[in-house]
Write the structure tokens for this entry.
Amino acid sequence: MLSGYPLSLGFATLTASLHAPSPIDSPSPVPSQNPPAMQLDQLLTTDDILLDQRLGDADAVLGRLAGHYARRLDNFDADHLHRLLRAREQTGSTALGEGVAIPHARIESTFPPRAVFLRSVAPVPFEAPDGHPVDMFFSLLVPGHATGQHLEWLSEIAGLFADDSARAALRAAQTPKQIQGVLAEHLGGSSQP
């Protein structure tokens, strides 16, 4: 807890707004598919860990995330992904307090879920409930039919970010491999090489 603000209140706001209707990010008409559950830390390769980013504002963060997703996924346009992430933020900030946020979106398409961990050089304003700027972003992009898995991962990320020692270790890590090690330790999974 920083400045007396309980991180769990930020997550409660986040999960409540996850189900808010949006013309872009709506529930999927695709029949439920049940792929094997992935561990959250398995979604992040070292290429998906972006450290020392110089970004001036929240929109620049969302644009950087969208551009990264577009490069990692076939047939996805960075501008469209940017609009999706921005639309999701407009339903309520995904910032939790303590300098952390979980920008995320669901897309009506079939693709493997993706994640990006981004740490900025300087914190950026992100409408956090505690009023503090954000320097660490754990982003998710999931197919529309994966609502249950999406909520589970959001809960895991919120738990990770609620842990003072995990946040300190993520801020101290100097390389993507070190970030993976922190995630493996605190999420209880096995990180990819």
Residues 147-162 form the longest helix (16 residues). Helices lie at 7-18, 58-72, 78-90, 147-162, 164-172, 176-187. The mean pLDDT is 81. The chain has six helices and six strands.
